[in-house]
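Example pasted here:
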Amino acid sequence: MYENAFKNLGMVLPFDYFIAYVLRTLEVAPSQLHPNGWAAMQASKVICRALALIPSVPIFLNHYTTQVGQNISWVSLSPLLKESLFNAYTASYKVLKNLFVKIRALGRASFALDSKPLPLYWRLPYKFKGLSKGKLSLEDRANL
């Protein structure tokens, strides 16, 4: 994992349901997700808390698509046109690439609160194009 996810964005282990569900849906390892993706997820959770809403992965993913770097590199979350929740931080993360933290689970410890396995190895993920509004539950559509 990138150190800034913990130091600057307040990420903690084990990951909560929201974070784990996003990683599983996108089929990416935590270290494979670009720091902007972590920032967007954290910002979404803060907004939901402020509005007294439970963070919804389908609502969050309704606003984003993935962009896969060359050579099975980082996976970035990119806002869908006219659906952006936040402005992306576009400055370079070159310095942060050197600030990597290796995390190892002890015993049978899990990286997620629900103890379901997370993808831990980098792979070529499929191209995620966001969730259409038609795939959202009635409750999620009402909360859009």
